[in-house]
Amino acid sequence: MSDVKVTLMSWTEKPVETIYSLWEASKNESKLIPINEVNRDDAVELFDKIIAQRIPIGEHINFVFMLENVSVSFREQMVRHRIGTHVGENFGVDIVPDLAGSSWWSQSMRIQDMSHFCENGNFRIPQTVKDLGPEAVQGWKEDMGKIQGMYADWLDMGVPMEDARDLIPLGATHRISWSLNLAALQHVIGKRSCWILQAGLWFPVIKGMVEELRTKVDPLLGNLANPPCLNSCKDFGGCVFNLENERRVDGSDAHHACPLYLEENNLAQPTDIDFKDRAKDYSELWNFKFEGTDDA
User: Fold this and answer.
1) Which residue ranges make up each domain of the chain?
2) Domain 1-109+173-225, what architecture?
3) What pLDDT was estimated at residue 14?
4) Which of 47, 181, 200, 294 is the right S-S partner for 101, CB 3.0 to 4.6 Å?
5) Phi, psi for residue 62 in degrees, rounded to 5
6) Please, what are the averages of pLDDT over each run of 10 residues along the chain (296 residues)?
């Protein structure tokens, strides 16, 4: 079972400087500033403030990612983002850019022979199964092997791959490309950086995207990984999933509550290693230290 791998394939050159040049061009009648002549310090000073306004200027910056070893269940989560509108203060009607600047292209099991997907390790084992121990993991692998065998048997009987694929589980993994602009990226990464929202599926993808942006394009793009409760200055604005966290605190939901919620409400941080490891991962992703966790 290979880890999720994210590769940034192409991007708009000098996105921070481009945003600055476009911003300045819209605010005065001065001569246009060529991207290569933009003062870096000026661009850095304004970048976070400009994109924090969630205005369409971010739609001019584009990225193409390749995601590898992601499950079909993740793909269904990813493409379910929808475009919509709502009344807002900025324009009268605000654009919600989830899907507006997004496009996908994936490997198709209609023409991809999946008769070796299990032995090749092309499937996901959920963390909840891993938490049950080695025997559970082995049982999961064996069940995947049974599905692989049934798939191969139907192919041998003459059923075409496009029909036999209906047997393939949602946990099977594949490649999918994702093209989106900065505004859409800002919205999706911000939303899916949340501790609550499908973290098991999304965290390795979001982490990979942020690392690619930070190292290949510009360190400032690492600031996109803010959950809904943190602003660009890392100020806590209140949890939008209070009910979910309350259920986790009282035990109705077995998952851990968010450390930001616990800290804000002066509640004790769990001491088990799973929580501390995850809190450390999110601390690095958000560039935010939780006071109640020694290692984060």
Assistant:
1) 1-109+173-225, 114-171, 226-296
2) 2-Layer Sandwich (3.30)
3) 95
4) 181
5) -125, 150
6) 91 96 91 93 92 87 95 82 48 45 80 93 90 94 97 96 95 93 86 77 89 95 84 78 92 89 90 87 83 52
Structure tokens at 141: 């692998």
**Exposure string (b/e) for 242-251, b if CB count within 10 Å is 16 or more?**
eebbeebbee
* pLDDT at site 229: 85
How many CA within 13 A on the CB side of residue 234? 10
- Give ∠ CA 204-201-152 in degrees, rounded to 5: 110
Q: Which of 177, 231, 228, 173 is nearest to 62 (CA)?
A: 177
pLDDT at 142: 97
Structure tokens at 139: 């049982």
The whole-model pTM stands at 0.83
CA distance 127 to 135: 14
Report how far Cα 83 is from the mean position of its chain's Cα atoms: 17
**CB burial class (10 A; 0-12, 13-18, 19+) of residue 201?**
buried
Q: Which helix (H) or strand (E) holds 3?
A: none
Q: What is the pLDDT of residue 291?
A: 62
Long-range contact set of residues 161-168: C-beta below 8 Å, sequence gap at least 24: 161/109, 161/110, 161/111, 161/112, 161/113, 161/114, 162/110, 162/111, 164/114, 165/109, 165/110, 165/114, 168/72, 168/109, 168/114, 168/117
57 in Cβ contact with 46 (< 8 Å): no
Rounded to a whole number of angstroms, the CA Rg of the chain reads: 22
In b/e form, how buried is each residue of 20-53, taking b as 16+ CB within 10 angstroms?
A: bbbbbeeeeeeeebebeebeeeebeeebeebbee
Q: Which pLDDT score, from 0 to 100, does residue 101 have?
A: 60
